[in-house]
Design goal:
Elements (H helix, E strand, L loop, with lengths): L12 E2 L8 E5 L11 E8 L9 E6 L9 E5 L8 E10 L5 E3 L3 E5 L23 E3 H6 L3 E5 L13 E7 L10 E4 L2 H6 L3 E5 H5 L5 E10 L13 E6 L21 E2 L9 E6 L10 E9 L13 E6 L2 H6 L1 E6 L2 H4 L5 E11 L5 E3 L3 E6 L13 H10 L3 H16 L8
Parallel strand pairs: 1-8, 9-15, 16-23
Antiparallel strand pairs: 2-5, 3-4, 3-6, 6-7, 6-8, 10-13, 11-12, 11-14, 14-15, 17-20, 18-19, 18-21, 21-22, 21-23
Length: about 425
């Protein structure tokens, strides 16, 4: 019996790292040891080498001293590879050349971490956690916890007994220790449904609101652990609301009086979202997190996957002097380019240095990236359009023409409605 293996483990799993040293095998005293004048030869065998070649041998002249048992033999480290399942057994041969065989014992060597060298995919938030915001009402209504789920399909080489360790931190990768662990069952693997609970105590422990990241690692029974943290799952903690209710919606200084940003404003250079400082709430080093989402319609419906973005900024002394902060939504791809004739919604969350936070109402901007000719404008077409823009007249004239076109649309004289 290998000394480091749990006798109740049918797979005989060797803890990772131990295969870099010789494997100690403990052999008990056999039923009929040699008597005076005879000698027993003990041979140890390993299925990774030829079955008739012992990997260790020892002689025991009679009378055999039972106090020396179990006796230790070694399997050399150079044959403890590659990964796989092996058999170890021994024989006792008497002076009369009679041999007795032990039962074979399975030994499993596994040095590959779960998921191999692939980074684990991000955890999934509950469907009823609106906008990923964890507030007091949610925790009260969900037994003071947030149930997270590993994505489907489950990670590569998932096995019963794997341990999922959950991390919760405002930093990515996390700078905090494990906040929860869960042991994977075969039933969960079969159902492709592995879950882990983020306790409310872990959410409250930092004693502040703001943006947090849930990440995890997986450790198998041999002790192999994934090489890196999983991809992050962002969530917002809002347990310490600011006084006065929701903050006002952000503005879009590039938009015209109708609330449109069009080709003349060169949206491929980014779209500015302006956050006005109100109610004396904004202070130096407070954090503002802007959330952006593009839509196919002009009224913020039918979201365009991939256009979403999160932009975190710190309030500077200059921001306080100006009385506002401008956040530039960029790059053009992926946040703006898919929006041809549609809209975008922007909201922001103010997180105070003190830990309190508050969210804004959503601000809507309409985006039209088509010239009057119907051609789509963008950074590549800008030069080509320069001649046609001159032919189209002054900028104010083009805006007036677009205004008239939209009025005609409202009167039902063709085109898309607002």
């Amino acid at each position: 019996m290998p000394a480091i293996i749990d006798q109740n483990d049918p797979e005989g799993l060797v803890s990772t790292g131990t295969q870099v040293t010789d494997l100690e095998v403990l052999v008990p005293l056999w039923p009929f040891p040699a008597t005076p004048g005879d000698t027993d030869r003990l041979d140890l065998f390993w299925s990774g080498v030829s079955s008739d070649t012992p990997v260790a041998t020892a002689d025991f002249p009679g009378p055999v001293d039972s106090a020396k048992f179990p006796v230790s033999l070694k399997v050399a480290k150079n044959i403890l590879q590659p990964d796989g399942q092996y058999q170890v057994w021994y024989t006792v041969t008497t002076s009369a050349n009679n041999a007795a065989f032990s039962e074979r014992r399975t030994v499993t060597i596994d040095t590959r971490p779960p998921s191999y060298n692939q980074q684990l995919m991000p955890l999934l938030l509950p469907d009823d956690l609106v906008s990923g915001v964890i507030n007091e009402a949610y925790l009260v209504g969900h037994s003071d916890q947030v149930e997270l789920r590993l994505p489907s399909p489950v990670y590569l080489d998932a096995k019963e007994g794997d341990v999922v360790d959950l991390y919760w931190s405002q930093d990515n990768p996390p700078t905090t220790s494990v906040v929860a662990s869960a042991t994977v069952t075969q039933a969960q693997i079969g159902m492709d449904d592995i879950r882990i609970v983020l306790p409310g105590s872990a959410v409250r422990a930092p004693d502040r609101d703001g943006n947090f990241y849930a990440t995890y690692k997986v450790r198998d029974r041999a002790g192999n652990e994934t090489d890196s943290f999983s991809r992050e799952t962002p969530a917002t903690v809002a347990l310490k609301p600011l006084p006065g209710g929701d903050l006002p919606e952000p503005a879009f200084p590039q938009a015209d009086i109708e609330g449109y940003i069009n080709c003349d404003e060169a949206p491929w250079n980014g779209i500015v979202v302006r956050i006005a400082f109100v109610r004396s709430l904004f202070e130096y080093q407070d954090q503002i997190t802007l959330y952006w989402q593009g839509y196919r319609t002009l009224n913020g419906a039918d979201p365009i996957a991939g256009t979403e973005g999160v932009f975190a900024r710190k309030v500077s002394a200059q921001n306080l002097t100006d009385g506002y902060m401008d956040v530039l939504v960029e790059p053009f791809i992926p946040h703006i380019e898919p929006i041809i004739e549609g809209s975008a919604l922007a909201t922001y969350r103010l997180t105070k240095v003190s830990g309190q936070s508050g969210a804004s109402y959503p601000g809507l901007v309409k985006i039209n990236r088509q010239w009057p000719s119907g051609e789509i404008c963008g950074p590549v077409t800008q030069t080509a359009q320069s001649g046609s823009r001159r032919e189209g007249g002054c900028k104010a004239c083009r805006r007036f023409n677009r205004f008239i076109a939209r009025m005609l649309q409202r009167l039902g004289r063709g085109g898309k409605g607002l």
